[in-house]
Design a protein that fits this description.
The structure is a homodimer. By secondary structure, chain A is of the alpha/beta class. Chain A is built from 14 helices and 13 strands. A five-stranded mixed β-sheet of chain A has the order 2-3-1-4-10. In chain A, helix 11 links the parallel strand 11 and strand 12. In chain A, helix 5 runs parallel beside helix 6 and helix 10 runs parallel beside helix 11. The radius of gyration of chain A is 22 Å and the shape is elongated. Chains A and B meet through helix 2, helix 8, helix 9 and helix 13 of A and helix 2, helix 8, helix 9 and helix 13 of B.
């Protein structure tokens, strides 16, 4: 019954000695598979056991342990794959996932349904970087948000997303908001003479995200924003399977998995590989120099994983956010290149000449690198 | 439009001085509400702003900041409430949620649908503590798992749950497994002369958890196991709203939110208050002395929040797991009392006389404290 196919996970383990690291790696393997004393595992459970196949010292007190796990631990269930990756060991210090062999994504996942090329095609922009901004703050009415959307669109913005906190508040209920903003964007496009894409936020109760997704489709949205760690991370996969609209993934509620030096996932594995494999067409992450603490090297590593060859998966648009304003945009483009969506939210709202003029300046910079 | 009702969150902030703590608290408030420069917030967005109402030094370099937020930031959307609690700030160090005022749970949530009293009623056990074990490991067939379930049931176990990694693997697909185990439990009850409850694991793609829940109901399961951090945390609320079966919540993928000293939530706020408010009837957490690192004090604090008065919510069964075997059970009961489900998994499988005899010993200890 069980397939004999296996895949590997590499953990960076903090330990006082190699012996200690080996013991810890064995404990991890048991925890993430049979979760019972080895002497009590019956014959038919032994197929589920992982094995350590490599152990390399990386730095003082840090070892990289590679374990091979049977794919029969999760078969076709991606949520259970996430559980095998980090379920119980999320409760442990001194362990960080740094690599997962690519074969694991191939069996059940297909990556983004649109990717960089698909989003470029929707915008008819072949080479330059893309601009993105956010509708905010919570508290504005659909008419006020739509007016902002009109300003951004007439200034020529490429993508407008909802602020990730816009849900179904009485100040701007989902349906009225999406309907008003889509209409404003379509009118603004006539002023700008170019396409603008609107991505409303569909993050809500996980059992009802698909309903909201289909509402967004019906109302003529061009993509959707979703926070996978609030809806259940696998939601990306379910949504991308529908193939209707590109998915922009937001990191809300996910920081705890990536910001600790000896815990969780590396940001490039989590945002770069896993979110792409699950189907994100664009991945928002906290840019260096912003309100959060990623280094430039980490951001570049995330971009690399989003855009590198991975099976036949489309490439995903890195979408650095925070720490970018019009004066620093050129240096960001120098660092990240054109296959990037630059998300400027708050600082556009601060520009004295209004949203339309601020957006025109934004586009001018991007076009100069075309 | 927007309601003027507010609620408070208290954060423990690590900072070098009170000034620094105040600045950090202000940054948190902006991040979790308008998420834009204050000077750019329009009039209708100002209602969304939080205010610092208290700042108390807790210890050296630690301050407790209480902020009051408008409930209009989330209205009736519990997922958006989670985003307000910890969305973007999940990407920050030096901040831990330690308290949330109770009023926030009252508007949209109702706590467990069954709770301690409802689960006791199903078992017809009024006073003593309850026993629980897990079907494992992954790799066993439905028939093998059902045979184990029969042994546990004939020994008189109160609750059998699936191992949290049992999903829909080809070795034991969900439907065949639930059907075989329910049947085995019903036969075992005739041998024991008492009721046993079976909780299959319904954790899967968030969009399909409700389908699996209804399948569990149809197949005669007595409750379900779910890992909220894999399905989207709000799933507990959606499931408890159905009111069909008690929910046992598993901490897989949630450790990153609670194990860091200066990051996340306190375990008692997260597992004790939030999971109860969302609707968990039983909350599994890693017991002290087990494979993870909670202290006895933390476990007692979780138990307290699960069982204390909170609006008219039912009390939730604390379900400590790990670090308990038959020899230590008496000392655990002395620490946690009878309104507790003691979950012994792996160590029951190690008993030489077989699962039925091991379960009988388990029940004997619990009955001695009746």
């Amino acid at each position: 019954m069980a397939s004999s196919a296996r895949f590997t996970i590499t953990y960076r383990i903090a330990a006082g000695s190699e012996d200690e690291a080996v013991q810890f790696a064995e404990k991890i393997g048991t925890e993430q598979s049979v979760e019972m004393p080895l002497e009590a595992v019956p014959e038919s459970g032994k197929l589920s056991l992982p094995h350590i196949i490599d152990m390399v010292q990386w730095a003082e007190n840090l070892w990289d342990a590679t374990l091979t796990y049977p794919k029969s631990l999760f078969d076709s269930d991606t949520t259970q794959l996430m559980n095998v990756l980090f379920g119980n060991i999320s409760m442990l210090h001194n362990i960080k996932l740094i690599d997962i062999d690519e074969s694991v994504w191939k069996d059940n996942l297909h990556g983004p349904a649109f990717g960089i090329s698909g989003i470029r095609k929707k915008l008819d922009v072949t080479k330059r970087a893309l601009s993105c901004t956010a509708l905010k703050p919570i508290g504005l009415s659909p008419a006020e948000l739509a007016e902002n959307a009109y300003q951004f669109t007439s200034g020529g913005i490429d993508i407008i997303k909802d602020d990730h906190g816009l849900a179904n508040q009485s100040s701007a209920e989902f349906t009225s908001r999406v309907s008003a903003v889509v209409q404003a964007v379509r009118i603004g496009e006539q002023a700008s003479g170019k396409k603008t894409l609107y991505f409303p936020n569909i993050t809500t109760s996980p059992a009802y995200v698909l309903d909201r997704f289909h509402e967004a489709v019906e109302h003529g949205a061009d993509g959707v924003l979703v926070s996978p760690q609030l809806t259940g991370i696998e939601m990306l996969h379910t949504l991308s399977n529908r193939g209707h609209l590109p998915l922009m993934a937001h990191p809300a509620f996910s920081g705890s998995f990536v910001i600790h030096p000896n815990h969780g996932f590396t940001p490039e594995l989590y945002y770069g590989t896993i979110w792409r494999a699950l189907g994100a067409d664009s991945v928002i992450y906290p840019n260096t120099g912003g309100r959060f603490s990623f280094t430039r090297e980490t951001c570049i590593a995330i971009n690399h994983n989003l855009r590198t060859d991975l099976h036949s998966f489309y490439k995903t648009f890195p979408t650095p956010a925070g720490g970018i304003d019009l004066s620093s945009l050129e240096q960001e483009i120098a660092a990240y290149g054109n296959d990037t969506i630059y998300l400027i939210g708050g600082s556009l709202y601060k520009q004295k000449d209004g949203l339309q003029a601020a957006t025109e300046n934004f586009q001018t910079v991007l076009r100069s690198y075309e």
